[in-house]
Design brief:
By secondary structure, the protein is mainly α. It contains ten helices and two strands.
Length: 260
C-alpha cells in the first residue's frame, strides 16, 4: 500500500531545510504560542501571521498546494469542537431561531470567537505542516530529545509513526480477505457486526504480539532508548539569525496588535 508520509518533502534543499531541527521546533512552538495568546478578533495580527507563514512556506520550496490541502484536514475537527460557541457566548444577538420548544440565539461576540478559534487553529497547523514537511521525523524526535522531552514520550512517538503504516497494511489485508469471502452478501447485519468485531480483536492480538517481538529484538541489539540518526545536530550562525529575525518580526506583529 502506498502511504503519504508526513516528511515526504524533507529531502529538498532550501534555507528552511538546512536549519537545525531544534531551531525549527523552537520557532514553531513560539509561533503557535503567540498565535494562541492573541485576543479574539485580532484580525490584523492573524493576517500578518498568515503572511509570515506563507513567506516561510515559499522559502521552503514545499508545494503551496500540498500545504494548504493538508491544512484543511484539521478544519472539520476544530469546527466540531467550536461550533457551539456562538450559541453560548453572551453578547449582542445577531439572529435567532426555534427548534421545537428551544429558542437558540447567535451573538456577534460568539461568531467573532468562533472565527478567532478557526484562524488560530489554521495558522498553527500551517506552521506544523511546514515543520514536518522540511524535517525528517527521526530528526524531529532527536530534536525533542535534545530539548529534554521525556524519553518515554519520544519512544512512543517513534514507534507510533513507524508502525501505524504496518498496522494500516494489516487492516487492508484483513479487509481484502473479508471481502473475498463475499462479506455482506446474503447475510444479516448482526453477522456483519460480529465479523468486524472479530477483525478488531484479531488486529489487537497481532499488534500486541508484534510489539513483544519488536521489543525482544531491540533489547537483543542493545537499544538503550536514545533516538539515533545519521545526521548530527549542529546549531549554526544561520540558525541564530533565523531565530533572531523571526523573533523580531513576531514581536513587531504583537506590538502592532496591541497598539491597534
Amino acid at each position: 500500500m502506498k502511504h503519504s508520509f508526513l516528511d515526504k518533502y524533507s529531502d529538498r534543499d532550501s534555507i528552511i531545510h538546512r536549519l537545525d531541527p531544534r531551531t525549527k521546533l523552537i520557532a514553531a512552538l513560539v509561533f503557535i504560542f503567540l498565535v494562541v495568546l492573541l485576543p479574539p478578533a485580532s484580525w490584523l495580527a492573524y493576517e500578518l501571521y498568515f503572511v509570515v507563514a506563507v513567506a516561510l512556506i515559499l522559502l521552503s520550496q514545499v508545494p503551496v498546494s500540498y500545504v494548504f490541502k493538508q491544512s484543511l484536514v484539521i478544519i472539520p475537527f476544530v469546527l466540531m469542537v467550536a461550533l457551539f460557541i456562538p450559541f453560548f457566548k453572551e453578547g449582542t444577538e445577531a439572529f435567532s431561531f426555534n427548534i421545537f420548544s428551544w429558542h437558540l440565539s447567535v451573538t456577534y461576540e460568539g461568531l467573532e470567537t468562533l472565527g478567532s478559534v478557526m484562524a488560530k487553529a489554521w495558522l498553527s497547523i500551517l506552521f506544523l505542516i511546514l515543520l514536518t514537511s522540511t524535517t525528517t521525523f527521526s530528526n524531529i524526535l532527536k530534536a525533542l530529545e535534545h530539548l529534554r522531552m521525556p524519553r518515554v514520550l519520544v519512544m512512543i512517538m517513534s514507534f507510533m509513526y513507524r508502525y501505524i503504516f504496518v498496522l494500516t497494511d494489516e487492516v487492508m489485508r484483513m479487509k481484502q480477505a473479508r471481502d473475498s469471502r463475499n462479506f455482506g452478501e446474503g447475510s444479516n447485519r448482526l453477522w456483519q457486526i460480529k465479523t468486524v468485531g472479530n477483525m478488531i480483536g484479531t488486529l489487537f492480538i497481532r499488534s500486541y504480539e508484534r510489539g513483544e517481538r519488536v521489543y525482544a529484538s531491540m533489547a537483543a541489539r542493545g537499544f538503550d532508548g536514545h533516538s539515533r540518526t545519521l545526521d548530527r545536530l549542529c546549531f549554526k550562525p544561520m540558525d541564530a539569525c533565523f531565530l533572531a529575525i523571526l523573533g523580531i518580526v513576531l514581536a513587531l506583529i504583537t506590538l502592532l496588535n496591541l497598539v491597534y
